[in-house]
């Protein structure tokens, strides 16, 4: 664990004690009259939604333009989520002040901000259809009302990497140490006993293994969020049990005894059942599992970066496609089932001396077809160096954020240099560009040079109105429409 990680963990430990005192006091055993909704039909969590498919619930403009930008005053680590009703939410890592911001999608104005003990490989608030938030924190998950008020806090064994609404009443929480449970989204009370997916962890340290989650190394049992089929309350997640030779792909299902009865869902309204687990003999990265559109296939990146597909019925291996690099971020799935690979990047800015080695290697954009069960390559853009997750639109296009290095090597559609006339791209300081690609051919349809942007990218998302949000690791937020 490096000095920066150690310092961040120490700060988080100090903050979590405050949060537990404040938030636990807000826990209620009373339902809120069915006022809450399932996960928002927008970019409602770190990977877009429960299936982790990186898919927007809208199309985007043919030629998006910058509407506003702002800085948050601290490094960002995670994708901006949105409630679909006009607000985006962005988390940061900071030593003081606010580190969760609610921003007006119209003009970037800060609606509210709060300080929370956020920590983890990717920090993104999960949002329901009314703007209520469920936020992964150091050692637990906290619920906030749409106006930013603390509601409850639930402690976990480790930091949550999965925070997903199964429906309007149940929240699935899986920590990086493999502790899985379902809690009542209204009250924060348990709706299932804890299920330890990685077996017992021989420490009470909630931060144990957390520094390895970003790269998916063995020290982190569950580095990425589970992909969830909400129609069956079934989750698919990669798990590395301490001492085991290989990681495993695990399927589990929440069986609720009162999901339709209106009961309190407390101690206990159901149970998590493990359906199957299969070894991933080629290893796995920290990239989350992603579900196909029909929920019949689960996609996992192997240790050498190849993309593998498994049957969600029994875990049978279906196909493996070589992609030629090791992505750090999940692929997106187009409406026709095409899988577009993600990028390589360090999503946390480490300071002015950081040379961004983690995004220095090849990270092309590769499209894989799953139509005929062969996992064949459809197209490849080796001229692009992708920096974060791709975002697929509902009309078959895909957005990618790539490195713009002062030449035409970022694949500009018209071959122009990235040194634009405005001077926004200083010589010798690589910038960032967004490309809108045709999902069928990979052709660049539109390209935007992001003004004054450099360094790593924290995330790329699209809200339900087609507004594109890019956040840099340095904490600058840009909205395009």
UniProtKB/TrEMBL annotation:
<keyword id="KW-0732">Signal</keyword>
<dbReference type="InterPro" id="IPR002372">
    <property type="entry name" value="PQQ_rpt_dom"/>
</dbReference>
<feature type="region of interest" description="Disordered">
    <location>
        <begin position="330"/>
        <end position="392"/>
    </location>
</feature>
<feature type="signal peptide">
    <location>
        <begin position="1"/>
        <end position="24"/>
    </location>
</feature>
<feature type="region of interest" description="Disordered">
    <location>
        <begin position="28"/>
        <end position="61"/>
    </location>
</feature>
<dbReference type="Pfam" id="PF13360">
    <property type="entry name" value="PQQ_2"/>
</dbReference>
<dbReference type="InterPro" id="IPR015943">
    <property type="entry name" value="WD40/YVTN_repeat-like_dom_sf"/>
</dbReference>
<feature type="region of interest" description="Disordered">
    <location>
        <begin position="406"/>
        <end position="432"/>
    </location>
</feature>
<feature type="compositionally biased region" description="Basic and acidic residues">
    <location>
        <begin position="373"/>
        <end position="385"/>
    </location>
</feature>
<feature type="compositionally biased region" description="Acidic residues">
    <location>
        <begin position="413"/>
        <end position="423"/>
    </location>
</feature>
<protein>
    <submittedName>
        <fullName>PQQ-binding-like beta-propeller repeat protein</fullName>
    </submittedName>
</protein>
<feature type="domain" description="Pyrrolo-quinoline quinone repeat">
    <location>
        <begin position="273"/>
        <end position="333"/>
    </location>
</feature>
<dbReference type="InterPro" id="IPR011047">
    <property type="entry name" value="Quinoprotein_ADH-like_sf"/>
</dbReference>
